[in-house]
Design goal:
This protein has 287 residues and is an alpha+beta fold. It folds into four domains: 32 residues; 49 residues; 80 residues, SH3 type barrels; 77 residues, no CATH class. The protein has nine helices and eleven strands. The strands form three sheets. A five-stranded antiparallel β-sheet has the order 6-5-4-3-7, with helices on one face. A four-stranded antiparallel β-sheet has the order 9-10-8-11. A two-stranded antiparallel ribbon has the order 1-2.
Length: 287
């Protein structure tokens, strides 16, 4: 005796019917060699096939979720960060570099040396960090202050170190180092005696903002010491800011072009002037 199943009637346009038949063929739901829509619907009902939302997430949504993941990593909430990474990997809209980054993160979500460093930072415990870079050079730093920071969407260990050799910043800032975390695959970390430094070294930098930038500027409350409008010349904003790295400061202000001018200290002004002259010479040379 044959067993009869319940029947349903679908009212479809020819184009929709063709799409369903194509899906049935794609997932092997056939009767003989012909696509079978009934088998496709049955497989969906039994959750042998899962219906998912359209892969139409915007770049802004993906970027926001990935930033949330890195923030969770910084906060030490690794399991929540892994959950977001797994959610993102289900999407087809990811760029190949981001997909690779997420896959590497899930494979190795937290390196032991970083966990140890975060514990020392929390306890304000000076420590020594030794590692070998990609060029097989061995670096050793005696660190008396450190913090995890984000610069241009990458995580860094900003730290105050006893060592100054090799640092190309201004003399007042040569104790400050900025180590890119994802480039340190393994490191030896040991505690040392002594006092925890209160913070990174800083210098005061005076700059002036012109035209639209002067009106659009939002004060960096933790860094800006002075934020005022000048009377002469008019419509010019004067900012005095604490700076711990001239490298990141220069990268920030050069994008503002002629709307931003560094007034002091003079060594930094000359350093930025050299960058501008080098850029001018490059564009003035024959291609």
């Amino acid at each position: 005796m044959s067993r009869k199943g319940h029947s349903i009637t679908l009212s479809l346009k020819e184009q929709d019917k063709a799409h369903l038949e194509a899906l049935a063929l794609e997932f092997g739901m056939t009767w003989g060699d012909r696509p079978n829509i009934s088998r496709l619907v049955e497989a969906i009902a039994r959750r042998q096939l899962v219906i998912a939302l359209n892969h139409d997430w915007t770049k802004e949504r993906i970027t926001a979720l990935n930033r949330a993941r890195t923030a969770l990593v910084d906060a030490g909430q690794i399991e929540a960060a892994i959950a977001i990474a797994q959610l993102l990997l289900e999407r087809s809209e990811l760029t190949l570099p981001l997909r690779t980054e997420l896959e590497q993160f899930i494979a190795k979500p937290a390196v032991p040396w970083r966990i140890e460093v975060e514990r020392y930072i929390l306890r304000r415990q000076p420590f020594q960090l030794s590692y070998q870079d990609a060029a097989e050079r061995v670096w050793q730093f005696t660190i008396r202050h450190a913090e995890i920071a984000t610069h241009e969407d990458r995580q860094y260990l900003d730290c105050w170190c006893e060592e100054r050799t090799g640092n190309q910043d201004l003399p007042e800032l040569m104790h400050n180092w900025c180590l890119r975390i994802d480039r340190i695959l393994d490191a030896a970390v040991v505690p040392i005696s002594g006092q925890w430094h209160p913070g990174l070294d800083t210098i005061l930098v005076e700059l002036r903002l012109f035209r639209g930038l002067a009106f659009a500027y939002h004060s960096k409350s933790t860094l800006d010491q002075v934020n005022e409008w000048l009377i002469d010349p008019p419509q010019v904003r004067r900012i005095v800011r604490q700076v711990s790295s001239t490298f990141w400061f220069t990268r920030e202000i050069l994008r503002y072009g002629k709307d931003c001018e560094v007034m002091a200290p003079d060594p930094l002004r000359q350093k930025i002037k050299q960058e501008v002259v080098a850029l001018y010479n490059q564009y003035n040379a024959e291609p």
